[in-house]
Structure formats: C-alpha cells, structure tokens
Predict the structure.
Amino acid sequence: MNIFEMAHIPLNKAIEVMQLDAGAAAIIATPERTLEVSIPVKMDDGSTKVFTGYRSQHSTVLGPAKGGVRYHQNVSMDEVKTLAFWMTCKCAVAGLPYGGGKGGIIVDPAQLSKRELEALTRGYIDKIAPLIGEKKDIPAPDMNTNAQVMGWMMDEYSKIAGQFEPGFITGKAIGVGGSLGRTAATGRGVVVAALEALKLQGIEPYEATAAVQGFGNVGSWTAKLFCDAGVKVIALGDVNGAIYKADGFDCYDVDAYAKKTGSIVGYPGSKPITNAQLLAMEVTVLAPCAIELQLTKENAADVSASIIVEGANGPTTPEADEILEEKGVLVIPDILANGGGVTVSYFEWVQNLYRYFWTEKEVIDKQTEMMIKAFHEVHAKAKEYGVPLRVAAYIVALGSIAEAMKIRGMV
Ligand code: GLU
C-alpha cells in the first residue's frame, strides 16, 4: 500500500461513521490538480543538472490551496499528493479559509551550494508560477525549507508578477512581510495540544515528562516550549541519533549546542540512546516531530507514553493506530496537533493583505485560542461518535468541506 492509500484509511472511517454524501467523498478522494515540473540548474562546476519538482492542489473548496514546499531526496508525487490532502484537512480542522496544497523537489539540499539552492528555488517558482498566487495557492516552508527559501520564492514570484507579492507566500522573514511568531508556531501548537490533553487526564505540566523525535524547526520548538511549560523533556532525537537525560534537558541549551555542532548527539551530560529506545521511552508524552511512518506495526506495541502528539505529518501508520488504540494511548493526530504552523501562516497572509502588522503577543494569543477551540471541537466529535481523535478530526474537516461543496453546488 502506498502512502496516499494509507492516508485514506482514517478518512474512509470518518466518511462511513458520519455517512458523508457519496459525491463529496468521491471529490475529496483525489487532488484537484497535480503538476510535475523539471527544473534545470546550472551547477557551480559548470554542468547543468535537471531536478524534478511537484505542486499538488488537493482542494480549493474552502479557499485557496495552502501548504509548504519540501526539499528532500525521498520526495515523490505520491508523497506530495498525500501531504496536500493532509493540508486540506488540517486547514479545515483549524477553521482556516483555505484548501490544501503541497509542493516538493527531489533533492538533498545539503549537497547544494547556497547559489545552487537559490537557482533551484527560483527555477521551481518559474515552473509552478501559473498555478500559484495570493488567491490561488500559497506556499510555505516545510522540511528543509526556511525563511531564506521563502524570501527567494517571494522575490522570484514578484518579478514574474511585476509587483510586490508578499501575500503569495508565508513563512517569510520579518523584513519582507513575515509574521512574528511564525517560526515557533508549529511547535507552539503541538505543545498547546499536548497541554490540553494533559488537562483532560488531570496531569499538571510539571508532573509530565516528554520525548521528542526530530530536532528541526518543529521538534526543536516543541522541545523548547515543553520546557517553558514546565514539562520535563528527558529524551530527544535527530537524524544522527538520540539522547537521554533522566533529570530533563534545558532544551534551549541543547538547541544552541545543535546549532554549533550540527547535531544534538554528544550533548554534554546526555546518554546516547537509539531511535527505537526514544519511541519506547517511558514518558507521559511522546512527540514524533520528524517524518512520516515512524510508528508502525513493528514498534507501536513498545510505546510506553500515555499521549502521542503528532508534530510531523503522518508519523503513525493505520496499523500502529489500531495497536495504540488497544493500548489506550491517546493519539492527538497531525491534522489537529501540527496545525499551528499553517494557522500563523494564515495570520501572516492576513497581515500581508492589510499591510498592517500584529505584535507577537497578538499572534500567540490568537493562535492559542484557535488551537484550543479546534482541540475541543475534535474531542467533542470523538465523544459524540465514539471514535479516536484522528477519525474525529476527519469528521470535523469533512463537515465543513462538504457543507461548502453543497453551498457551491458541487454536490
Ligand atoms: N508545512 C507546514 C505544514 O505541514 C506549514 C504549511 C503552511 O504554513 O502553509 O503544516
């Protein structure tokens, strides 16, 4: 089964439970459009290399397509389509006026020089330009892309459009229309969701421990904001390995160490552990914040956490979901838990449209309020239908998407 088919398993459960209109279910099953592009780049050694990229617009029913662009050697059309589908559902759960989209380029960016990376980024925008725009499809950062990449994309698109176009892209630096609070936003949302789940279980943050897999933008901010909230973070992992500290990490210090050395591994005073040990760690909260398909039928039974909060997109397979449900682990699904990033992207877009900027406090307060509301909406649906939070989140998303389809005369 490929990842796109896998992603439909909880969706189909939701469709069945809520008895969704067959037409709406059929529309949601496939992306509206997916573009494959080839991007020639003049490399530093004088040769020309051709890269493959994608942009998929899964849905524009609730608004323009919205979602990040990923640079990774394992990017595929299937993965991009799946991630675009998750964005549609994520935006609907968060209550944003957006559909869902995603892009990606097959590349290991660590192998490119800065100039090559910029040329690739500009070439990608040139190729997808007819599809994107402030009211059509709004890209953002995802794995291995950041504010600098967004800045190049904004510049390239503005040149093509012949005018300043900050609203066509989010996750930009503050100097070109970015929003305060955007960098930490996904991690902040993950922590807000986890704290709400702890509250439901009657656990105070200072009584809780956490393990975080992944130390990119999402993982590092999740870890740091867990520390701020008083949760003891005892295990951390990145692509190079994992580390453990029984009395908890100062995650800001680990971050500074990782920025200096390129990895969290070797952090003074930590004990090296394996990724498998990290995922099986006896903690209150496990936060997979790395990449898809991390909790599988092979390792789900080893999970000792009572709450899983998905910072990554699609870290848990449907088989793992079943095992975790049987074990009584509360899984806060990706399309709810990691919606904080796109929520603040939405705030950035609004600020760009108005050319009027908010304080960081305004951003954080609004984000927190929206995420808590979404959490309780999903939790209430889970109770109403007697289903796990993941299926409930799809029920919430499908509810608003199907309603819009009906009003628009699509079904
Ligand atoms: N790439 C992020 C995600 O998967 C953010 C998308 C956005 O801000 O549009 O949710």
In short: The radius of gyration is 20 Å. The CA atoms of residues 53 and 302 lie 37 Å apart. The chain has 14 helices and twelve strands.
